[in-house]
Amino acid sequence: MPLSGEATTTRSRGQYSASKLLVSLILSFGLMYLDHKDQYLNKVRSYISATTYPIYVVTNAPKNIFLNLRETVGQKEKIILENQRLKTENIALSSKIQQIYKLEKENKRLHDLLDSKPKTEDIFVLAEIVAENPDPFKHRIIINKGSKENVHVKQTVADSRGIIGHVIRDQIFGSEVLLITDPEHAIPIEVARTGLRSIALGIGSYEEIQLSYLAVNTDIQAGDILLTSGLGGQYPVGYPVAIIDKVSAQKGESFLEVRAKPFAKLRNINEVWVIQRAADGAIDFE
Questions:
Q1: Phi-psi region for residue 12, left (φ > 0), alpha (ψ -120 to 50) or beta?
Q2: Can you list the domains of the chain with their CATH numbers?
Q3: CA gap 62, 56 in Å, rounded
Q4: Strand pairing of 186-191 and 197-202?
Q5: Beta carbons within 10 angstroms of residue 206's beta carbon
Q6: What pLDDT shows up at residue 22?
Q7: Which of 14, 58, 87, 143 could form a disulfide with 127 if both were Cys (CB 3.0 to 4.6 A apart)?
Q8: Do residues 246 and 258 make contact, with C-beta atoms less than 8 angstroms apart?
Q9: Tens digit of pLDDT for each residue in 118-134?
Q10: 3-state SS class at 202
């Protein structure tokens, strides 16, 4: 008897499960049919989607934040690398520009120096400055050309602008030049405008030389050009020396105070011409 009761219970449960499955299938097919025919479930799905969307957003927020953060970090690294690359390129370009400026300046300086060569048969030797006398009261320089290149004492030295001085000591591979601003230097000059002749003396300043013993009624004025007169045979005729920048007369004095600014940039000398054989007559600078 007990066995018969258990068997009955088992059959009842099986029949119930089968009934549930059958009902579920019928309902499913019914809902599918209704949805296909009349789209009744669209509103239901819309309501469900609207309800679950915030949950979807919240659950995916950490992932989205991580992805955005990773993208931001990646972009920042790219920007940093790009910035470093641009800085490196900028430094390189700036260096090249500076080199271009330097080369242009060097080319212009050499061009001016070559263009300053007088149109005569004189012989000129290009020389470089290798040293300057450290004594502030001795305006002298050493050039890298000497007796080996036929550079000798008393030869005139000039740059692209005008007279610098003359050789006072020559050696095999170098020579010493006395500048026109040295206190021991004197050069015969002529005022281009009037033909007045005088002696220009160095006074120990690289910026000016002095004309002495000119009477107060002498026709000389600021802006007058001083050229070598050729007197004494030390310097050839017609080279630019200086330009008058100050003429004054002290009350009760018999002579003018006349100062002139050398054409040559005596503080920034790089190359010079040594004139080995000066011809008579004026020198025509281009």
A1: alpha
A2: 123-277 (2.40.10.340)
A3: 11
A4: antiparallel
A5: 18
A6: 73
A7: 143
A8: yes
A9: 555 667 889 999 999 98
A10: strand
